[in-house]
Amino acid sequence: MILNGWLLPAIALHKPSPNFNARPELVDVSLLVVHNISLPPGEFGNGCIDQFFLNQLDSSQHSYFQTIADLCVSAHCMISRAGVITQYVSFDERAWHAGQSCFDGIDDCNNYSIGIELEGTDTTPYTHQQYVALVELTRMLQLAYPQITDSRIVGHCDIAPGRKTDPGDAFDWSLYRGKLALGV
User: Fold this and answer.
1) pLDDT tens-digit readout, 115-150
2) Computed from CA positions of residues 54, 58, 64, 70, in that sequence, does the dihedral angle turn out positive or negative?
3) Could you list the active site residues?
4) Which residues pair with 3 in a beta bridge?
């Protein structure tokens, strides 16, 4: 359940990020964007994603972190390999997940989308727990934001082609959409 833009604490951990701002007035939330993230690339479960979205990542921990040290980004939620959902930004606010993007002829997808990160890479298969959590989260979002229809669920690669590739070939869109359609 979603209350005032936040999943209930029984559903998700809350770790509010400073990296957000208000959505433009009179803009409806109408798009769900699926991403992936791992920090450092290919490593999971070390807390670095939380640190990154909270502007607390120690760039001396890994050479890759020096390349992203000045970025201020966020997603609305992240789903860990174990299927745990962490929410960083209210769904009613504008998270900074999409960057330069366009969907259906409308630029700046951050204005009207919700960004969900899956802990993973383009080439590492996602876990059963992640698909279960993503399907449950998608259903809650579609109830709260009915303009997010099945045709308005996309990957980062779809709104930033040539620039982004996530969630990648490892993401099983057929499995996800099938579970979503079946209510499984």
Assistant:
1) 999 999 999 999 999 999 999 999 999 999 999 999
2) positive
3) 117
4) 6
Which tokens in the block code for residue 135? 């399907």
- SS3 for 55-71 is CCCCCCCCHHHHHHCCC
Structure tokens at 56: 């607390």
Domains of the chain: 2-178 (3.40.80.10)
pLDDT of 56-101, one tens digit each? 999 999 999 999 999 999 999 999 999 999 999 999 999 999 999 9
User: Directed axis angle between helix 128-144 and helix 173-182, to 10°?
Assistant: 50
**Residue carrying structure tokens 């939330």:** 29
How far apart CA 75 and CA 87 sit, in angstroms, is 8
Q: Give the C-alpha separation, 137 to 142, whole Å.
A: 9
Tell whether pTM > 0.85.
yes
Omega before residue 9 within 30° of 0, cis:
no
Helix (H) or strand (E) holding 13: strand 13-14
What burial class does residue 151 get, using C-beta atoms within 10 Å of its C-beta: 0-12 exposed, 13-18 middle, 19+ buried? exposed
